[in-house]
Automatic annotation (TrEMBL):
Keywords: Acyltransferase, Transferase. Its EC number is 2.3.-.-. It comes from Streptomyces salinarius. It holds the Pfam family Acetyltransf_1. Residues 29-190 form the N-acetyltransferase domain. The lineage of its organism: Bacteria, Bacillati, Actinomycetota, Actinomycetes, Kitasatosporales. CDD domains: NAT_SF. The keyword Transferase applies. GO terms for molecular function: acyltransferase activity. The keyword Transmembrane does not apply. InterPro entries: Acyl_CoA_acyltransferase, GNAT_dom. This is GNAT family N-acetyltransferase.
Length: 190
């Protein structure tokens, strides 16, 4: 197996006023919180959004591991729907001392390039900033951060920066060059 160099950029916002929201796209696009922890649905979103950009770290998770993660206080999944069909999602994971990570964010390939991503990122970031209002006992959000890498979509970094995220760290590491898994084997051309 060959290795590839992967650049990972970490970005942050340190105040709710850092958020520069995108306009909502035209049409019937809605963003709804998935309030019932559902390993099946979360794995569907993860595999469908990340299948063509080599998201593989959670593919081996068991049902129990998914449930354990989703039931942690403050973990939230917000799903964008286009005319009733899931188009993408943002997953928020609280850390210590008011730090919230946008752990996963993206769109299913068929919904990219339709201005849904900027709107979903804006909405998800706003929900990261007000996370403690929905979860008594969590610290008030002081920082929202995320990471993206050179394997992600070509417009990812631009979207994050246009929403007000600022770069705070860059790393380059060698990773195994794994095949694009798709939402199921063979879903995308190699």
């Amino acid at each position: 197996m060959t290795n590839i160099a992967v650049t990972t950029w970490s970005l942050e916002q340190t105040a709710p006023t850092d958020l520069l929201p995108a306009a909502a796209p035209e049409g019937d696009v809605r963003i709804v919180r998935s309030e019932v922890p559902s390993p099946e649905f979360s794995r569907f979103l993860y595999a469908s959004v990340g299948g063509d950009i080599r998201w593989t770290d959670r593919l081996g998770w068991s049902y129990a591991r998914w449930r354990e993660h989703l039931e942690r206080p403050g973990v939230e999944t917000w799903v964008a729907y286009d005319r009733g069909t899931p188009a993408g999602y943002v997953e928020l994971t609280p850390g210590d001392d008011g730090v919230v990570e946008i752990e996963y964010f993206g769109l299913i390939p068929a919904f990219r390039g339709r201005r849904i991503g900027g709107h979903l990122l804006s909405y998800g970031t706003a929900r990261a900033w007000d996370l403690a209002e929905r979860w008594p006992g969590l610290a008030t959000t002081k920082r929202v951060w995320l990471h993206t890498c050179s394997k992600d979509g070509e417009y990812a970094m631009d979207n994050y920066q246009r929403r007000g995220f600022r770069l705070f760290d860059t790393k380059v590491e060698e990773e195994a060059d794994v095949a694009t898994p798709g939402p199921w084997p063979g879903a995308f051309p190699a």
